[in-house]
Design goal:
Elements: H1 3-19, H2 25-119, H3 123-140, H4 177-187
Length: 209
């Protein structure tokens, strides 16, 4: 069967099919006949394109394999370098936060010392303590330069993971469809799942004689 013949037959049968209205036994028989014809044409179309599709798929698969072979070592190198850069930046951020916490701790300790020295009337020591507090404050106000990276960008993503499933709101939970499908397939209409309705759906299909 040639492509032009397939298009012609397909056009004719589609025009017949869309005009059918099944209202009685006679029109049901007509619909069944057209369904068989449609099925035959579908098979003809499938057979006609099967060989070129298989060849195209094989060619695509071979080219894709060569592409992946060329990319694989490069992608591994990229992954390794990104991981190294990330680890360094994470460590630098950890150090920065640790230093910030340390300065905050020192400031709080010096403020308590300053208050005691002022209560004791020790003006000289209080002034020295105040100067130290000012030094720490000035240090904390310095803008720390980020590590320079040429041609590389970085961004922080806010991600999430479940810490306690029982506390997750119901509207954020989803039904495990594969598991429900498996239960219904096994139990059929006898399946009983709270909150889920089991029903029959009639599917019309044609089998070749």
């Amino acid at each position: 069967m040639k492509e032009q013949e397939i298009k012609k037959q397909s056009s004719l049968i589609v025009r017949k099919a869309v005009k059918i209205q099944v209202t009685d036994q006679k029109t049901l028989s007509v619909a069944e006949t057209i369904l068989v014809q449609v099925k035959d044409i579908i098979k003809g179309v499938t057979d006609y394109f099967e060989d070129p599709i298989a060849k195209a798929h094989a060619a695509h698969k071979a080219i894709l394999a060569k592409k992946n072979e060329a990319l694989d070592p490069l992608l591994k190198a990229e992954k390794f370098l990104k991981s190294a850069v990330r680890d360094y930046l994470v460590e630098e951020e950890r150090k920065r936060r640790a230093a910030e916490e340390q300065r905050k701790f020192e400031q709080e300790a010096l403020l308590a010392k300053l208050e005691k020295e002022r209560d004791d009337g020790d003006t000289k020591l209080a002034d020295e303590t105040f100067d130290k507090i000012e030094e720490i404050h000035a240090e904390s106000m310095k803008v720390e330069e980020l590590p320079q990276m040429v041609g590389v960008t970085k961004k922080t993503l806010i991600r999430w993971r479940v810490s306690n499933l029982s506390l997750v709101p119901r509207d954020l939970l989803t039904v495990d469809k594969p598991k429900v499908d498996e239960i219904v397939k096994r139990m059929k209409m006898n399946a009983e799942i709270p909150g889920i309705e089991i029903y029959e759906d009639l599917i019309v299909a044609m089998k070749r004689s």
